[in-house]
Amino acid sequence: MSHAVLHRICIFPIKSLEGVTVDSATVTEGGTLAWDRWLRMVDADGRVINGKRTAAVHRIRVRYDLEEGRVDLAHQGESTWESFALEAEDPGLAAWLGEALEMPVMLQHDARHGFPDDLVRSGPTVIGTATLEMMAEWFPGLDLDQLRRRFRANLEIRGLPPFGEELLGLPPDAGRPFRIGDVALTGLKPCRRCVVPTRDPETGEQWRGFQKVLVNQRRAHHPGWLPREHYPHHYLLALNTRIVPGQAGRRLRVGDPLQVDPG
């Protein structure tokens, strides 16, 4: 892993919608990445609206201007974009999303922690470029960018072997330390996947058998250096992490080296 570097950073300012690639990202006081899952959508009963609940989120096109704190939205297949402040208090943003999703939408904001799926394993998710390249061989017609949009990892590392990132999370939740540039993280466990990767990220159309292909291929190509006893199933991809406390204000930058604690 001595030549592995941070190749790509993607954050998701509105949870469940498309992300935006950036050259750097700052660690928040809450141990997450600034702007990542900054806002989330809930319905009138306070239930979270996400891709697990409705495929309609995939049909919303998004463009972000984080310097200005703005978001542009469009319906899939349409050329008209509408611009809003990237704030929970902007009623126009919530109204537009509600119309697109055909349900009342309210927005919640948390700049300190964001809204990670897992409050314990709340750090950025990590995947290797070689992992995506191998998966492109398993799913004809899907290139790297399409796979990135399906699996929605925050950090992509170039220079690891396929699935090498998962070694940083084994044994599960034991806490293996590593660094990317100046930021110290703890690898916790490979990420269990949901229904979202099985869907086309633009139309929401489901690829029948996608999960079965991934499970069968992962089982068939399981690297000998990944202990099988830690894999009760193979519907896993990318690494869950936690940022070590005390990193607030530090930045991850594309090109930063990955350094693994030898212990």
What do you see in this structure?
The chain has 263 residues and is an alpha+beta fold. It has a domain of 153 residues. It has four helices and 16 strands. The strands form five sheets. It has a four-stranded mixed β-sheet. Strands 14-13-12-16 form a four-stranded antiparallel β-sheet, with no helix packed on it. The protein has a three-stranded antiparallel β-sheet with strand order 5-4-9, covered by helices on one side. The protein is globular, with a radius of gyration of 18 Å. The mean pLDDT is 95.
Keywords:
globular, 4-stranded mixed β-sheet, 29% strand, 4-stranded antiparallel β-sheet, 4 helices, alpha+beta, 263 residues
In short:
15% of the residues lie in helices and 29% in strands. The protein contains four helices and 16 strands.
